[in-house]
Design a protein that fits this description.
Strand order of the largest sheet: 5-2-1-6-7-8
Largest sheet: 6 strands, parallel
CATH architecture of the largest domain: 3-Layer(aba) Sandwich
CATH topology of the largest domain: Rossmann fold
Distance between the termini: 35 Å
Number of domains: 2
Shape: elongated
Structural class: alpha/beta
CATH superfamily of the largest domain: Crotonobetainyl-coa:carnitine coa-transferase, domain 1
Strand content: 5-15%
Length: 412
Amino acid sequence: MTAHQSPPTPGALAGLRVVEMGQLIAGPFCGKTLGEFGADVIKIEPPADPSRPGASGGDPLRNWRMLQDGTSVWWQVQSRNKRSIALDLRASQGQDIARQLIAEADVLIENFRPGTLEGWGLGWEALHALNPRLVMLRISGYGQTGPYRDLPGFGAIGEAMGGLRHLTGEPGRVPVRTGISIGDTLAALHGTIGVLMALYHRAAHGGPGQVIDVALNEAVLNVMESLIPEYSAFGAVREAAGSALPGIAPSNAYRCSDGYVLIAGNGDSIFRRLMEVVGRPDLGSAPGLQSNAGRVARVAELDTAIEAWTQARGIATVLAMLADARVPAGRVYTAKDIHEDPHYRARDMILKQTTRDGREIEVPGVVPKLSLTPGTVRSSAPHLGDDTDAVLSELGLAAGDIAALRAQGAVA
């Protein structure tokens, strides 16, 4: 199925008006998610700054990583289903237009440093008075309160301060990142959940709008499982463990004759089936290995036994045998592997999308899968200011008024 040919459905969030401010990843990823399920997302982007010749305007993500026709292919995913209005929020005229948009909006998404919107007269108190039903998502490095409130924060720093970076990589080596901006995305997903909860409260209980305050480091900490309880109860500081999962056994990456496979044999019955496959039924039936605690105590022995079996075989053989035994396993996929895997395509997770410049590109599909109101890609990512005139016309501005604002540099 091609993205621009997705079946017309109203979407679970049809009728929801979202104004997206901010840039790059965390806030815009939330806007992307809401837009995929039917929300009308109006993205406010800064026009090009005439005082900086050669500098492009808009969200910097437009120019990140690999470009096609001058635009990042990442942008094609992050900003699909959005409308772009080029608006200078530093100008009083731009701030006035923003207030008009927000007055009619259900949700405002912003990921500026705390205090930025207040400096433009667009803080929560002012906006709540303007639109009492407004739900405002604020994503920042450390939240809207606390001693670190005013410090700049990026996803990588949130990952480090949230405890994730300390656990990545090999023991005793430099902490490594996951290779993607996972801190930003985790914050965006927490923000999306918060928006939906606030909208439910507003609809089901007649409540007013409210603020959702998401900090990057807190979003990371929230998925760190037993990290804090283990330290609180036992003084234990979890350390990096490479490809293993400390305290869970056996679960690791094992070398084959032509690469690595990941095997998760940590369920009690799964462990017994795994040991049968690897030719060690003695371990599978050993009294001391029938629970996770016993297996953790002998994890090195188990990993050695499993890898002795995998090293003698190729990845395909290992995976086939483990699938027959109903043992969870998989190989480490590259982008090429994902692109060629028929399962992803069978579930519409690789879609063809046509850019505004007429090029066809394949992009990830929509998650999660809803049976009645599935998410869709209704429109490709916009050029900067593609929808400025249309959005301003919806606010009641005449063509002459829009031309005057453009001459003043407030819009583009």
